[in-house]
């Protein structure tokens, strides 16, 4: 399993180092960070989430430029904002911009008011991200593609449509990863019955 973890971490580091804290993508066709074949969102919602991320990112760059370092990740129309802003006014403006994007139903603003992170710190986040994903893959009682993983300054943000059991298990796994400072759950919790209904029959 160590070889698998190292291989996944290396692949993620190579593919995402240039962009920082992009959603983790491993294997298959991807939309918004989760494999299409096992995604628990409809294809229309996956496309909307991808569009939300693109539009929000573009508008933030247009209006705030390099005054902030911001990542927007959307899952089931819930937009998670992470990164750094130098002051509360810019933090609030980022939230306003993201909230005004079409189809966003809720904004979770986890932007820190601090100095913008250095490339070395973002590189470390990519490594942690790979470790979390690899550990979820190793967990035989979880479907790893059900989780959308974002890492910022050593803090792990977990998104997805999951049951309470899955949420607790994934949180436990993420907290046990070396270098993880905090785990923030941004889940949409569904019942076991709902999970059975949306899971494709084999």
Automatic annotation (TrEMBL):
Residues 1-20 form the signal peptide. Residues 48-115, 124-191 form the BON domain. Pfam families: BON (PF04972). Coiled coil: none annotated. The keyword Signal applies. Keywords: Signal. The keyword Signal applies. InterPro entries: BON_dom, Lipoprotein_DolP, Transpt-assoc_nodulatn_dom_bac. This is Osmotically-inducible protein OsmY.
């Amino acid at each position: 399993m160590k070889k698998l973890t190292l291989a996944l971490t290396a692949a993620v580091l190579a593919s995402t180092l240039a962009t920082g804290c992009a959603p983790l993508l491993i294997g298959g066709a991807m939309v918004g960070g989760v494999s299409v074949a096992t995604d628990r969102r409809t294809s229309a919602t996956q496309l909307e989430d991808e569009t939300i991320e693109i539009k929000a990112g573009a508008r933030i760059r247009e209006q705030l430029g390099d005054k902030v370092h911001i990542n927007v990740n959307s899952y089931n129309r819930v937009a998670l904002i992470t990164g750094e802003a130098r002051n509360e006014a810019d933090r609030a403006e980022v939230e306003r911009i993201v909230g005004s994007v079409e189809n966003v139903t809720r904004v979770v603003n986890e932007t820190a008011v601090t100095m913008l992170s250095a490339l070395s710190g973002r590189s470390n986040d990519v490594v942690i991200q790979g470790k979390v994903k690899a550990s979820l893959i190793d967990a035989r009682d979880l479907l790893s593609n059900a989780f959308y993983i974002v890492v910022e300054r050593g803090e792990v943000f977990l998104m997805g449509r999951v049951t309470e059991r899955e949420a607790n298990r994934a949180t436990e796994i993420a907290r046990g990863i070396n270098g993880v400072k905090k785990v923030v759950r941004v889940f949409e919790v569904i019942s076991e019955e709902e999970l059975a209904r949306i899971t494709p029959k084999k």
